[in-house]
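User: Quick sanity check before I run a bigger batch. Here is a single chain. Can you write out its predicted 3D structure?
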Amino acid sequence: MTFLDVGQGDSAVIETPSGRVVVIDGGGAPGTDEREGRDPGSRIVVPFLRARGISTVDLLVLTHPDDDHVQGLLAVVQRLRVMSALDSGFVSEDGAPCTRLRSALLARQIPVAQARRGEKIDLGSGIYLEILHPDNNYLKNTHSDTNNNAIVLRLVYKNTRILFTADLEDQGERDLLNSHQNLSADVLKVGHHGSRGSTSENFLRRVSPKIGVISCGRENRFGHPHKETLDRLQGIQLFRTDTQGAVTLESDGQNVTAQGFL
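Assistant: Done. Predicted structure follows.
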Protein backbone atom coordinates (compact mmCIF):
# COMPACT_ATOMS: atom_id res chain seq x y z
CA MET A 1 0.00 0.00 0.00
CA THR A 2 1.22 3.47 -0.86
CA PHE A 3 -0.02 6.77 0.53
CA LEU A 4 0.95 9.13 -2.27
CA ASP A 5 2.29 12.61 -1.71
CA VAL A 6 -0.38 14.65 -3.48
CA GLY A 7 0.14 17.78 -1.41
CA GLN A 8 -2.80 18.98 0.68
CA GLY A 9 -5.04 16.04 -0.13
CA ASP A 10 -5.44 12.27 0.09
CA SER A 11 -4.61 9.42 -2.23
CA ALA A 12 -3.77 5.80 -1.42
CA VAL A 13 -3.14 2.76 -3.61
CA ILE A 14 -3.66 -0.81 -2.40
CA GLU A 15 -2.00 -3.69 -4.27
CA THR A 16 -2.93 -7.23 -3.21
CA PRO A 17 -0.90 -10.44 -3.70
CA SER A 18 -3.43 -11.58 -6.34
CA GLY A 19 -2.92 -8.39 -8.33
CA ARG A 20 -6.07 -6.52 -7.34
CA VAL A 21 -5.68 -2.72 -7.22
CA VAL A 22 -7.73 -0.25 -5.21
CA VAL A 23 -7.30 3.53 -5.50
CA ILE A 24 -8.75 5.52 -2.60
CA ASP A 25 -9.08 9.19 -3.57
CA GLY A 26 -6.76 11.01 -5.95
CA GLY A 27 -5.80 14.33 -4.39
CA GLY A 28 -6.69 17.67 -5.89
CA ALA A 29 -6.14 21.41 -5.82
CA PRO A 30 -9.33 23.33 -4.93
CA GLY A 31 -9.98 26.23 -7.26
CA THR A 32 -8.21 24.63 -10.22
CA ASP A 33 -9.57 22.78 -13.23
CA GLU A 34 -8.28 19.21 -13.56
CA ARG A 35 -9.10 19.25 -17.27
CA GLU A 36 -6.00 21.38 -17.79
CA GLY A 37 -3.82 18.40 -16.83
CA ARG A 38 -1.98 19.94 -13.89
CA ASP A 39 -3.89 18.09 -11.17
CA PRO A 40 -2.30 15.45 -8.88
CA GLY A 41 -4.06 12.71 -10.81
CA SER A 42 -2.27 13.62 -14.03
CA ARG A 43 1.05 14.50 -12.40
CA ILE A 44 1.31 11.91 -9.63
CA VAL A 45 -1.38 9.21 -9.36
CA VAL A 46 -1.48 7.99 -12.98
CA PRO A 47 2.35 8.11 -13.42
CA PHE A 48 2.74 6.14 -10.18
CA LEU A 49 0.26 3.48 -11.30
CA ARG A 50 1.94 3.17 -14.70
CA ALA A 51 5.37 2.94 -13.08
CA ARG A 52 4.01 0.02 -11.04
CA GLY A 53 2.86 -1.65 -14.24
CA ILE A 54 -0.80 -1.08 -13.40
CA SER A 55 -3.21 -0.59 -16.29
CA THR A 56 -6.39 -1.76 -14.54
CA VAL A 57 -7.91 -0.42 -11.33
CA ASP A 58 -10.34 -2.90 -9.81
CA LEU A 59 -11.95 -0.43 -7.42
CA LEU A 60 -11.96 3.35 -7.35
CA VAL A 61 -13.11 4.89 -4.05
CA LEU A 62 -14.55 8.42 -3.85
CA THR A 63 -14.60 8.90 -0.09
CA HIS A 64 -16.42 12.25 -0.29
CA PRO A 65 -16.91 15.08 -2.83
CA ASP A 66 -14.16 17.48 -1.66
CA ASP A 67 -11.81 18.57 -4.44
CA ASP A 68 -8.63 17.62 -2.56
CA HIS A 69 -9.77 13.99 -2.54
CA VAL A 70 -11.58 13.33 -5.83
CA GLN A 71 -10.25 15.78 -8.40
CA GLY A 72 -7.26 13.59 -9.29
CA LEU A 73 -9.45 10.55 -9.90
CA LEU A 74 -10.74 11.90 -13.21
CA ALA A 75 -7.33 11.29 -14.81
CA VAL A 76 -7.41 7.71 -13.54
CA VAL A 77 -10.83 7.14 -15.11
CA GLN A 78 -9.78 8.73 -18.40
CA ARG A 79 -6.40 7.04 -18.82
CA LEU A 80 -6.71 3.62 -17.18
CA ARG A 81 -9.23 0.81 -17.15
CA VAL A 82 -11.49 1.11 -14.10
CA MET A 83 -13.67 -1.89 -13.27
CA SER A 84 -15.87 -0.47 -10.51
CA ALA A 85 -16.26 2.47 -8.15
CA LEU A 86 -17.49 3.08 -4.62
CA ASP A 87 -19.14 6.39 -3.77
CA SER A 88 -20.50 7.82 -0.52
CA GLY A 89 -23.43 9.18 -2.51
CA PHE A 90 -23.28 12.44 -0.59
CA VAL A 91 -23.82 15.45 -2.85
CA SER A 92 -22.03 18.74 -2.28
CA GLU A 93 -23.10 21.93 -4.03
CA ASP A 94 -19.46 23.02 -4.30
CA GLY A 95 -18.12 19.79 -5.79
CA ALA A 96 -17.65 20.63 -9.48
CA PRO A 97 -14.72 18.19 -9.97
CA CYS A 98 -16.74 15.45 -8.25
CA THR A 99 -19.68 16.16 -10.56
CA ARG A 100 -17.39 15.82 -13.58
CA LEU A 101 -15.94 12.60 -12.15
CA ARG A 102 -19.37 11.06 -11.57
CA SER A 103 -20.35 12.04 -15.12
CA ALA A 104 -17.21 10.36 -16.48
CA LEU A 105 -17.98 7.17 -14.57
CA LEU A 106 -21.51 7.18 -15.99
CA ALA A 107 -20.32 7.90 -19.54
CA ARG A 108 -17.91 4.95 -19.38
CA GLN A 109 -20.57 2.69 -17.88
CA ILE A 110 -18.42 1.94 -14.87
CA PRO A 111 -20.54 0.32 -12.13
CA VAL A 112 -20.80 2.56 -9.07
CA ALA A 113 -21.92 1.17 -5.72
CA GLN A 114 -23.08 3.32 -2.83
CA ALA A 115 -21.13 2.63 0.34
CA ARG A 116 -23.17 1.52 3.31
CA ARG A 117 -22.13 0.37 6.76
CA GLY A 118 -21.85 -3.38 7.27
CA GLU A 119 -20.94 -4.32 3.70
CA LYS A 120 -17.73 -6.09 2.72
CA ILE A 121 -15.73 -6.04 -0.51
CA ASP A 122 -13.72 -9.17 -1.32
CA LEU A 123 -10.30 -8.42 -2.81
CA GLY A 124 -9.13 -12.03 -3.07
CA SER A 125 -6.15 -13.63 -1.29
CA GLY A 126 -8.15 -13.55 1.95
CA ILE A 127 -8.20 -9.74 1.86
CA TYR A 128 -11.35 -7.67 2.17
CA LEU A 129 -12.54 -4.16 2.85
CA GLU A 130 -15.15 -3.46 5.52
CA ILE A 131 -17.38 -0.43 5.03
CA LEU A 132 -17.76 1.14 8.47
CA HIS A 133 -19.31 4.47 7.50
CA PRO A 134 -21.64 6.09 6.44
CA ASP A 135 -24.83 4.53 7.75
CA ASN A 136 -28.12 4.46 5.84
CA ASN A 137 -28.93 7.92 7.18
CA TYR A 138 -26.46 10.73 6.55
CA LEU A 139 -25.33 12.86 9.47
CA LYS A 140 -26.82 16.35 9.32
CA ASN A 141 -26.02 19.77 10.77
CA THR A 142 -22.46 18.83 11.69
CA HIS A 143 -19.43 21.12 11.41
CA SER A 144 -18.97 19.64 7.92
CA ASP A 145 -21.59 17.22 6.62
CA THR A 146 -19.35 16.46 3.64
CA ASN A 147 -16.49 15.32 5.85
CA ASN A 148 -18.62 13.52 8.42
CA ASN A 149 -20.43 11.43 5.80
CA ALA A 150 -17.21 10.30 4.13
CA ILE A 151 -16.52 6.63 3.49
CA VAL A 152 -14.54 4.94 6.25
CA LEU A 153 -12.93 1.62 5.32
CA ARG A 154 -11.02 -1.03 7.22
CA LEU A 155 -8.70 -3.28 5.23
CA VAL A 156 -8.43 -6.78 6.73
CA TYR A 157 -5.61 -9.15 5.76
CA LYS A 158 -5.27 -12.14 8.09
CA ASN A 159 -4.26 -10.54 11.41
CA THR A 160 -3.54 -7.11 9.92
CA ARG A 161 -6.00 -4.19 10.02
CA ILE A 162 -5.65 -0.79 8.33
CA LEU A 163 -8.24 1.94 8.93
CA PHE A 164 -8.94 4.68 6.38
CA THR A 165 -10.85 7.60 7.89
CA ALA A 166 -10.87 10.09 4.98
CA ASP A 167 -11.77 13.54 6.42
CA LEU A 168 -13.96 12.27 9.24
CA GLU A 169 -14.31 14.80 12.05
CA ASP A 170 -15.34 14.51 15.69
CA GLN A 171 -19.08 14.13 14.99
CA GLY A 172 -18.45 11.32 12.53
CA GLU A 173 -16.04 9.65 14.91
CA ARG A 174 -18.68 9.71 17.65
CA ASP A 175 -21.16 8.08 15.28
CA LEU A 176 -18.62 5.33 14.59
CA LEU A 177 -17.95 4.83 18.28
CA ASN A 178 -21.67 4.59 19.00
CA SER A 179 -22.11 1.99 16.25
CA HIS A 180 -20.18 -0.53 18.39
CA GLN A 181 -18.23 -1.83 15.42
CA ASN A 182 -14.75 -3.22 15.78
CA LEU A 183 -12.47 -0.28 14.97
CA SER A 184 -9.14 -1.73 16.07
CA ALA A 185 -6.34 -1.34 13.55
CA ASP A 186 -2.59 -1.69 13.30
CA VAL A 187 -2.44 1.34 11.01
CA LEU A 188 -4.57 4.49 11.09
CA LYS A 189 -4.82 6.88 8.18
CA VAL A 190 -5.23 9.92 10.41
CA GLY A 191 -8.46 11.77 9.69
CA HIS A 192 -8.69 15.13 7.89
CA HIS A 193 -4.96 15.66 7.38
CA GLY A 194 -4.33 15.83 11.13
CA SER A 195 -6.78 18.63 11.89
CA ARG A 196 -7.57 19.44 15.52
CA GLY A 197 -11.21 18.49 14.96
CA SER A 198 -10.39 14.86 14.20
CA THR A 199 -8.65 11.91 15.87
CA SER A 200 -10.11 12.37 19.34
CA GLU A 201 -8.67 10.61 22.37
CA ASN A 202 -11.71 8.31 22.60
CA PHE A 203 -11.39 7.39 18.94
CA LEU A 204 -7.67 6.68 19.26
CA ARG A 205 -8.30 4.54 22.31
CA ARG A 206 -10.74 2.35 20.37
CA VAL A 207 -8.54 2.07 17.28
CA SER A 208 -5.30 1.61 19.25
CA PRO A 209 -2.98 1.88 16.22
CA LYS A 210 0.74 1.18 16.21
CA ILE A 211 1.35 3.24 13.06
CA GLY A 212 -0.26 6.49 11.93
CA VAL A 213 -0.09 8.12 8.48
CA ILE A 214 -0.92 11.78 7.92
CA SER A 215 -1.51 12.96 4.36
CA CYS A 216 -1.04 16.73 4.10
CA GLY A 217 0.74 19.39 2.09
CA ARG A 218 4.02 20.98 3.02
CA GLU A 219 3.52 24.34 4.78
CA ASN A 220 -0.19 24.21 3.98
CA ARG A 221 -2.38 27.20 4.84
CA PHE A 222 -4.54 25.18 7.26
CA GLY A 223 -1.71 24.43 9.66
CA HIS A 224 -2.20 20.67 9.28
CA PRO A 225 -1.27 18.63 11.16
CA HIS A 226 -2.17 20.59 14.30
CA LYS A 227 -0.06 20.35 17.42
CA GLU A 228 -3.03 19.14 19.49
CA THR A 229 -3.46 16.18 17.18
CA LEU A 230 0.25 15.41 17.12
CA ASP A 231 0.23 15.46 20.92
CA ARG A 232 -2.59 12.92 20.97
CA LEU A 233 -0.60 10.72 18.60
CA GLN A 234 2.40 10.57 20.93
CA GLY A 235 3.65 7.00 21.27
CA ILE A 236 2.47 5.99 17.79
CA GLN A 237 4.99 5.54 14.98
CA LEU A 238 4.02 8.45 12.76
CA PHE A 239 4.60 9.06 9.05
CA ARG A 240 3.75 12.27 7.18
CA THR A 241 3.64 12.87 3.45
CA ASP A 242 4.60 16.54 3.89
CA THR A 243 7.95 15.64 5.43
CA GLN A 244 8.60 12.08 4.19
CA GLY A 245 6.95 12.02 0.78
CA ALA A 246 5.02 8.92 -0.23
CA VAL A 247 4.60 6.38 2.58
CA THR A 248 4.74 2.69 1.72
CA LEU A 249 3.32 -0.10 3.89
CA GLU A 250 3.97 -3.79 3.39
CA SER A 251 2.28 -6.65 5.20
CA ASP A 252 2.37 -10.45 5.17
CA GLY A 253 -0.89 -10.56 7.07
CA GLN A 254 0.88 -10.81 10.41
CA ASN A 255 3.17 -7.79 10.58
CA VAL A 256 3.28 -4.36 8.97
CA THR A 257 6.36 -2.36 8.02
CA ALA A 258 6.31 1.26 6.88
CA GLN A 259 8.80 3.65 5.31
CA GLY A 260 8.80 7.09 3.80
CA PHE A 261 10.12 7.80 0.33
CA LEU A 262 12.40 10.64 1.45
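The chain has a mean pLDDT of 95.

User: Great, the batch can go ahead then.
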